[in-house]
Amino acid sequence: FLYVAQGIGGLAIYDVSDLSSPQLVSSFAFSTDANSVRIEGDYAYVAAASAGLRILDISDPAFPQEVSSYTLAANAYDVDVANGRAYVTDQDYKAMDIYDVSNPLVPQLLGTYMAPDFVFGVRVSGNYAYIAANLAGLLVVNVANPASPVLVGSFSSPVVPPMAPALTANDVFI
Prior knowledge:
Elements: E1 2-5, E2 11-15, E3 23-28, E4 36-40, E5 43-47, E6 53-57, E7 65-70, E8 76-82, E9 85-90, E10 95-100, E11 108-114, E12 122-125, E13 128-133, E14 137-142, E15 150-155, E16 166-167, E17 172-173
Antiparallel strand pairs: 1-2, 2-3, 4-5, 5-6, 6-7, 8-9, 9-10, 10-11, 12-13, 13-14, 14-15, 16-17
């Protein structure tokens, strides 16, 4: 299945078993834009702008069900999920929130990293979150202690601010 955050169109779920003819299986509307989605097991974690972090049970893709949510200070822009935690960038508030989602039915805020500029994309690998932070560039934040995330490095591009980092085993792309 393919899960697509479609902005004002919410979350769309497609059957792509036949790549030449993807079929819309279902969709789920939010009161605002669906900016980003990450799948972990039977759950879709959606960064849904002013509606915050939305968690859907997608065990039956034809009938996604919202099981929990968490409202942010402003607008959820991006989400990544790793090791039972959800990392959500709050674009207008210049923050990345860290949630315990080991029980997706009851997300718990563990900590917040306040960035020096507006934040966009986030990707997590091991104990590090890589955050695209507008003119501040790419921020590398140690999240080993989610209650107290710490900036450990950064890179600022002289040409254009990063929007969405991508990770491989040994590289970061912005």
